[in-house]
Each structure stands twice: as C-alpha cells, then as structure tokens.
Design brief:
With about 290 residues, the protein is α/β, with parallel strands linked by helices. Helix content is about 30%, strand content about 25%. Strands 6-7-8-3-9-10 form a 6-stranded mixed sheet, with helices on both faces. Helix 3 packs across helix 4, helix 4 packs across helix 5 and helix 5 packs parallel to helix 6. Bound molecules: adenosine-5'-diphosphate. Adenosine-5'-diphosphate (ADP) binds next to helix 1.
C-alpha cells in the first residue's frame, strides 16, 4: 500500500505558496509530518483528503489518481481535521451508532460489533455511556479516531492531533494511532519533535511549503553523530573563529552558564564538548535549510 505525491503545488489566492513542489512516497505505518505553525501541513493534509485541489501535481493511492477517483478514494480514507466541530449531548456509543447508520452499516448486529470494536481500539469502552460534549480534549480526539475507523479506512490522516493535549492524554492518543498503523497508512502532522521520535517509522520536516527528504528518526539522529557540540563560547566569539557552524539551540547549565549547541563537520577546539545528537537537532538543522 502506498500514497505517492508527485510535484504537488498550491498557492492561495492571496499569493501564499502553501505547498511548493512536493514529492513524497508514504507506506504502511506511522508517518510523521513535522513542522512549525504556518509550514503548510494542514494545506497538504486537506489536499491529501481531497478537500482542496492542488494547482499542479498528482497524488496516487496504490497507483490510482485520488482527484479523478475521489469517491472510491474517500471510502478508504479517514481524515481527522484540526477542528472537529461541536459535540452533541449524546453518548459516545449512541453517536457512533448514528454515524455507523450514516456510513451505511444497515444491520444492527454489524453496527453493534463495529461500534464495540472502535470503542475498544480507542480506549473509550469505560466512557461509552458518557455524553461526548463532556469529554476531555484527549477523549474527543480518540472519539474522532473512533468515528473515522467505522469506515475501516486504509489511509488515516490526522492533522495536529496532539495540539493542546496534556502529556498523559498525548501518550494515550499516540498509542491509539500506533495500534491502527500496523496495517494502514497513518499520516499525522505535529509541531512536536517528541511526537515523532519513538513512534514513526518514517518522517519528514515541512517548512514554508517545502518538504525535506523522508527519513527514519533513528537514521536522522545517526547521521549527526560526532557533529553536534556544546560550547560556552558566545556566538560572537564563534563567528570570529574560522569554524563554519550552524547554531541549533542554547541552554543554561547548572552553573547558569549559557551553552550554545552547534552543528559542525569541522575540527573544533578542546573547549567544545561532543554531545549525543537528538532528533530536535535534526529538526532545527533541517529548518535552517541544510
Ligand atoms: P500549518 O498547518 O503548518 O500551520 P497551513 O497549511 O495552515 O500550515 O498554512 C500554510 C500557509 O498558508 C500559512 O501562511 C497560512 O496563513 C496560509 N493559508 C492557509 N490556508 C489559507 C487559505 N485558505 N487562504 C490563504 N492562505 C492560507
């Protein structure tokens, strides 16, 4: 199973180029689209959900064009937008049953099996009788996944699902989508490096409509080994040396001294400490266009 994006571009009528000639292939498993606010993630996801058309380029799902075969593609798609709208005063189970009717599962027996299954997989069994409008942010997100799973989608697209969730809810939510990713394509966007680190088979960084080549989080970290350093030298002093470097971040150590964290492939003085690369380093480096 694969989703293939070829030279996709989209410029809004106000001149914003939200998607800038993107090509990417996504396979089964969890795929993380990491990028800051305004990077173009939602624009890309809305396009992949066929809710908006690109200006140019092509998207194929298993070699079939998604825009000219929208109806059959949408039957295999589950899309959870960033804003999921208003929640009615109705129990989770009742509402899922109602959605199942709308989605054409006409037999009551089949509906019951399906509703129980999606409640189970999204960890909502214990609260199935509670009204959805009383749910916490994390429960709402999991409910969003439950309702899209009623279709038994092959491709699941979720836009910034962890935004605004507390750490425990985030973990619970990510575990739910991890569970459904074993046989499906699960594409989700985030601005949190932590979300992609341990979960995603593959990831890419998006910035200003542009996409970096896809990579696994572990290879992203591996390729930085021996190239990430911390130093007490100020940026001014660093600039005065002949070392060409890229500043990634900084932090205060326990003695309240500011340490600059840099990337360089060059030999550095003994006053620099070699540090273990993190995915965050890869993210910052990619954002800086290297
Ligand atoms: P992200 O999801 O990464 O935050 P978006 O896709 O929402 O990024 O936005 C990418 C850029 O496109 C931003 O500059 C945003 O302001 C702009 N944008 C998004 N939607 C529209 C729209 N409907 N019309 C005009 N500009 C838009």
């Amino acid at each position: 199973m694969k989703l293939t994006i070829n030279n996709l571009s989209k410029t809004y009528s106000n001149g914003t180029k939200a998607i800038d000639n993107i090509s990417l292939e996504i396979n089964e498993g969890m795929f993380g689209l990491l990028g800051p606010n305004g990077a173009g993630k939602s624009s890309l996801m809305r396009t992949l959900a066929t809710l908006q058309l690109p200006d140019s380029g092509q998207v194929l799902f298993n070699d079939i064009d998604i825009f000219s075969n929208k109806i059959s593609y949408r039957k295999q798609l589950g899309y959870l937008p960033q804003e999921f709208g208003v929640y009615p005063k109705e129990s989770a189970k009742g509402l899922l049953n109602y959605f199942a009717v709308l989605k054409g599962i006409s037999s009551k027996k089949d509906r019951d099996v399906m509703v129980d299954y999606v409640l189970e997989i999204t960890n909502l069994v214990d609260v199935k009788k509670k009204h959805v409008n009383t749910f916490s942010g994390g429960m709402r997100q999991r409910f969003g996944i439950a309702q899209l799973l009623l279709n038994q989608p092959k491709i699941v697209i979720v836009d910034e699902p962890t935004a605004g969730l507390d750490p425990a809810e985030r973990t619970r939510f990510l575990n739910v989508i991890r569970n459904i990713s074993s046989e499906n394509i699960v594409l989700f966007s985030t601005h949190l490096v932590e979300d992609v680190k341990d979960l995603c088979k593959e990831m890419t960084v998006m910035n200003s409509g542009w996409l970096a080549p896809k990579i696994s989080p572990s290879s992203a970290i591996d390729q930085l080994k021996g190239k990430i350093w911390e130093t007490m030298e100020t940026e001014e002093k660093l600039d005065a040396t002949s070392i060409s470097y890229i500043k990634l971040s900084d932090r205060y150590n326990s003695e309240n001294v500011l340490l600059n964290r840099i990337y360089t492939e060059e030999r550095v003085p003994d006053t620099f400490f070699s540090v273990t690369p993190k995915l965050e380093d890869f993210y910052f480096l990619t954002l800086k266009g290297t």
